[in-house]
Amino acid sequence: MELKFLSSRLNQPARSLSRLCFIFFSLFVFVFSSQLSASGDDRLHKLQGQIKRQSQQLEKQKEKREALFGELRSAEQEIAKVAKVLRMTRQELNRTREELADAKQQQAELTELYGHQQSALQAQLTSAYMSGNHDYIKLLMNQQEPGKIERTLSYYQYLNQARMDNLEALKKTRRQLARVERKLAEQASRLQSLERRQADEKSKMEERQLARERTLGKLKGSLSGGRQQLITLQENERTVRSMIERRRQREALEMDGLKALKGKLSWPVNGRISRNFGSKRQGNIVWKGVMLRAKEGQDVLTVHQGVVVYADWLKGFGLLMVVDHGDGYMSLYGHNQALLKRVGDRVESGEPIALAGKSGGRTSAGLYFEIRHQGRALDPSAWCRRS
């Protein structure tokens, strides 16, 4: 009994120590857990804050990019206006030069004719003077040969009429020559005016192009990085597919399409292919059409008759023209300097519809060309004749 009591007394401190250790351990775990939980919450809040700031920054970058695209669009549309005026002025200049050349040729011919007529009149007057007017009086006084008198009088009447006709022709030639000379002066003045206008328009074009280059530099800075460029290309692809699908559904045109013309179409510009259909563009994006080399301002010709269903600036494609050929076939012409047709215009095969350029952010001139059927891109090389 005494042993049991002694044993219980000896074990009592040990049990108290164990309980005390357990209490201390539980308190440590509680405190550590609280600290760990507080630390996790802080990290979570920090991450959420970073995500929010990053999202805001990306949104600002996107807004800035869209604003730059807007500036690019405005600059390129201004260039398109000037380019169209320049083209019309150039055509007027060519017509005026042709008219001026024709007028100069006409002037030379009339001057030569005037000289011949003067020589002929001078010869007639000399002949009349040499024969003398007294012969005519003698004939009237001569009563012995009436037959001779009649013949001679008829001769004099013929000569007088010839002189009168020659004089009238000479007057007419002088009037024509005067009109041609006035026309020459007007055409020369008009030519000078057109040349001044062309110089002014070229100066405006250079200003617009400088503004475009500045905007393009800023835009390239905002699009730095392959990931961002890939996203932009994917957005552009979705945009054009959506646009084509909408046009295809809204425009139910009764035309034959291009099915029977595979391998027979002419290229829209006479230039080498710099990017082939289906070749890799970036990431999983491939070329849905071809890039053709072309001079800036060169005429872009439609590959077949149809109706214009889109004619406007589109991000990634610049000034874009889309022609519906019927039966679900469409042709697309992108990166133009200017568009010569409007939505709803009927166009014939080989008709100029645009001017080649580098709109949409390109650094060199060229034409982007696609053929689509029911919204699916086709290889243009299989549809256009090889030169």
TrEMBL record:
Key word RNA-binding present: no
Residue ranges constituting the M23ase beta-sheet core domain according to the UniProt record: 287-380
Signal peptide from the UniProt entry: none
Protein name: Murein hydrolase activator EnvC family protein
Transmembrane stretches, start-end: none
Keyword Coiled coil: yes
Chain segments annotated as coiled-coil in the UniProt record: 44-113, 167-204
UniProt cross-references to InterPro entries, sorted A to Z: Cell_wall_metabolism_enzyme, Dup_hybrid_motif, M23ase_b-sheet_dom
